[in-house]
Design brief:
The protein is mostly helical and 177 residues long. The chain has one domain: Rossmann fold (3-Layer(aba) Sandwich). The protein contains 7 helices and 5 strands, in the order H-E-H-E-H-E-H-E-E-H-H-H. Helix 1 packs across helix 5 and helix 4 packs across helix 6. The longest helix has 21 residues. It is globular.
Length: 177
């Protein structure tokens, strides 16, 4: 999580940025919460970075719709899909997704439905965020529409049918053995 705080600090130190222009929201809990709070304090980000505990799906949807940009900074190699990225896309939120985890890369297409950043590089994350902010409203809307389409592709009905086909294939292969 430290790399996200470093990114926030990099952005807020830019000469063209007023500190009160940016508000960052971090959602989640876990064993590193005290370290997260310590890093927030060390970098003097208390006023610009808000920490929230885990949220219900309904609350997350409200937040996704209120955000200008959602960042999914996962670096976890075992991230199977990264559902939170899809949820943000389905809400039409512009997304920045780490390229350091395999799961989200199954749906995250750089320049089409999201913007990928180097998951281990806070400077790259800050640059990508600034890049998105410089896009025209038309370019942002095009990205949002592609993100929504991606989210729909992973909807429960569609995925349920895909899983049924996969399980049927597996079952058929098992019976043949």
């Amino acid at each position: 999580m430290g790399h996200v705080f470093e990114c926030c600090s990099i952005i807020l130190q830019r000469p063209d940025v007023e500190r009160n222009q940016y508000q960052f929201v971090i959602v989640g809990e876990g064993p590193d919460l005290q370290n997260v709070k310590k890093k927030q304090s060390e970098l003097h980000l208390e006023k610009n970075v808000q920490l929230f505990p885990f949220m219900t799906q309904k609350k997350l949807g409200i937040y996704f719709n209120a955000l200008d940009i959602f960042c999914f900074p996962t670096r976890r190699k075992s991230e199977s899909l990264g559902l939170v990225g899809l949820e943000a896309m389905r809400c039409g939120t512009l997304t920045l997704i780490s390229d350091a985890s395999e799961g989200p890369l199954s749906y995250a297409k750089d320049g089409i439905n999201t913007t990928l950043f180097s998951g281990n590089n806070p400077q790259n994350l800050a640059e990508k965020l600034a890049e998105i902010q410089g896009w025209s409203e038309e370019a942002k809307e095009q990205m949002r529409q592609q993100a929504i389409l991606t989210g729909k592709e992973y909807g429960s009905v569609r995925m349920g049918k895909k899983l049924e086909r996969i399980f049927a294939e597996i079952e058929g292969q098992y019976k043949e053995q």
